[in-house]
């Protein structure tokens, strides 16, 4: 059963508006994982070019309960980033359940924390990634400080983040619904669709990113991916993004579901560790 008043579409105009944002989010998530220098730093025992499998997890949420307000979550991440570099600029916000990479079943949005990921660029071109759990942002902070990004491309990314900083801050401040709210609004429909497709619903997990609607209002893009349980992953699997089981665009101010798409069933992208 689909959400009331919403017609499933494979090419909705609203989805196309947020498409670039979604593509950027997925690309950043995957590239953060597969860049060989970063992988060498995170997994120093691996030689590149790498043809084997990377060990994973386990990675599960350390907190549970209702989500903190989005403003509190963002402020926590920014404060942590500014401790490292006061000139860092926030460029990307995504969210997923802890254990998404390993296909750990998500307990659901009533009490199940989401891990919110914040990507910052520094004037040097390097990246800072901050992760916090939405139920307890101040006590669940994780940090990754990039020291190997190519300087020229990184500096261009920093300048782009600077150029869009005001618009992005206005966008993030206008959200009245959290990522967890967006999952709550789409959770049952996605699980019902998974069952119809013969998929175990506990393995269909949400990946959330921000965007704008045609009218400029903030939206959450919620993609549900079939994530089979795994303890390791190959680089080929990281490139095999495929299609989500179901995708929703949720108005970040009103909670209205603006569009729904049901896609092919394939294992989805992998957030950075």
Describe, in plain words, how this protein is organized in 3D.
The protein is of the alpha+beta class. It has helices at residues 13-34, 36-42, 70-84, 151-163, 165-173, 179-196, 235-239; strands spanning 53-55, 89-97, 114-121, 127-133, 142-145, 204-212, 218-226, 232-234, 246-251, 257-262. The strands form two sheets. The protein has an eight-stranded antiparallel beta sheet. Strand 4 (127-133) and strand 5 form a beta hairpin. The longest helix is centred in the N-terminal third of the chain and has 22 residues, at 13-34. The protein is globular, with a radius of gyration of 18 Å. The model is unreliable at 7-51, 53-58 and 266-273 (pLDDT under 50).
Task: Offer a few descriptive terms.
273 residues; alpha+beta; 8-stranded antiparallel beta sheet; two-stranded antiparallel ribbon; 7 helices; 10 strands; 23% strand; globular; disordered C terminus
- What strand line-up does the widest sheet have? 5-4-3-2-6-7-9-10
Rg calculated over all Cα atoms? 18 Å
Distance between the ends:
34 Å
Helix content: 25-40%
Main sheet record: 8 strands, antiparallel
- The structural class is alpha+beta
How many beta-strand runs?
10
Uncertain residue ranges: 7-51, 53-58, 266-273
How would you state the average pLDDT, rounded? 77
The dominant shape is globular
Strand percentage lies at 15-25%
Report the order of strands and helices.
Answer: HHEHEEEEHHHEEEHEE
Assembly context of the chains:
single chain
The count of helical stretches stands at 7
